[in-house]
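Why do we care about 3D structure at all? Because function follows from shape, and shape follows, mostly, from sequence. That is the central idea of this module. The next example makes it concrete: a single protein chain, its amino acid sequence, and then its structure expressed as tokens.
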Amino acid sequence: MLRFRIGIAFLLLLSFGMVNVFAENPAETGKDISVSCMETSLTIGAGKRLDDQTGSITIISEPEAGMAIYIDNQNTGKTTPVTIDGIAVGQHVVKLMGEWYRPQEKRVEIIEGQNNDLLFTMVPNYGILTVNTSADAIIYIDGKVKGSTTWSGRVKEGVCIVKVEKEGYKTRQWEVSMVRGKDQAIDLIMSPKTGTLEVKTIPDQAMISLDGKMYGMSPKIIPDLLLGTYNLTVEKPGHTSVYMRVEIEDSKTTTVEIPLVFGKEITVTSVPDGAFVIVQGDTLGVTPLTFVLKFGNHEVMLVKNDEVLVETIHVSPTGKKVFDYTLKQSNDPFYGQMVLVKGGTFQMGDVLGIGNREEKPVHDVTLSDFYIGKYEVTQAQWQLVMGDNPSHYKGCDNCPVERVSWDEVQVFITKLNLLTGKKYRLPTEAEWEYAARGAGLSQGFRYAGGNNINFVSWYSGNSQGKTQPVGTMKPNELGLYDMSGNVWEWCSDWFDDFTATPKENPEGPEEGDYKIVRGGSWYGYIGGSRVTCRGSDEPANKRSYIGFRVAMSP
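And the structure:
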């Protein structure tokens, strides 16, 4: 048998026997080929091209299309469903491959000019996995993010790693053995990250509370606390109460050891305030001042300008806690009501991330020392200076004056300064927010003085539809009342958008259309009482829910 690349098989009858000559397809024709046998030769003349000896295949896959097609292990670049023409006659192997299916192959005989239909029923190599977890937790499958809270989708057969993550919660990870064609569901409910607090006191048997919740007597181990900062209070009769902040960290034990002083906390106030408090030769601060003294008698000296007052204080377990002293009298309606706010740098604006556009961006502000009124200006104080009472809600001398425009407040301040010889003014917006937050004593409350609005603010939910006497709610860290609620308070600034640029003693733009008001009111919703909420109104407008408080530079 002889083989020649001439494109077709010939049967040659030669004198000494039969010779088969095969032409391989595809053939290159057009050449003469000589064949000899036992010295007998035969010349085969050039023939025609045999390229038209082909057929076609129509390939369909189920249950899904889009399978990649290979013929004789060569990628055709085509996907199902498709008809492929020009396939050489003879036997071929057709293989389909897809990401989510096992490879399938079939043999097919191609006959010249005919079409073959091939239907492949693909066998899946996946199962459907459903993952349920805590709200907003991120779901990972084999390290890739798939979604949050709930996810359902295909996963290839074999072992996969499911992981869920959420800030403040313990990460959970699970191995799942996927079986093709089988659906599975898993629930990965997350647990918060927690830590432990251990409190020791000397002496022991002191009452322990965290953020107002009682936890029993010392020594005490308190497990499973959520991460974050807590206000720790330790109290024991006959001893000084201790207030401190403790940080709880993930999977750690925070240990505090507190020596308790045999004595108690007292407060010394004076009229006017701002007097230096000197105890046994040591200057402790200025009034109003809260500090700890041991039980017994102590000589206390108060000094302000040329006024000096010396008193003996007796501290006992059941005795007084507040000691009030008067240095001199004054006809100033705000005498003894101005609180010194020590300057500092703070972040002004929506630091809690719950505010409006006007409260952004958060930016650094540095302020010098200033005084601000302990209370909102009352109707009686306005009447004393101006001789009238413009308020809508009359009959309450100790209620805040309202229905006073910003322009009228400037007239009031001018008359007040002539009367007292002082330099009262409105607070700037930055001073107002700094004071409302508690300045250097701030505990980061949402409202001025706390996070429970019903303890610190008169607003629409508790005000009975009118103003209320000043100073009847809980004060903030500086002893300021009604910085949240009762009436909105005029500030000196024109309204302007915040910028991220740090500022020092800002006073706002030089001109504008609206003046700033802060603090919320008896008429307003809860959000208006937040210490970062900003409002504004035209300076000539009078509202039954807008009043003011005074400020003064040292």
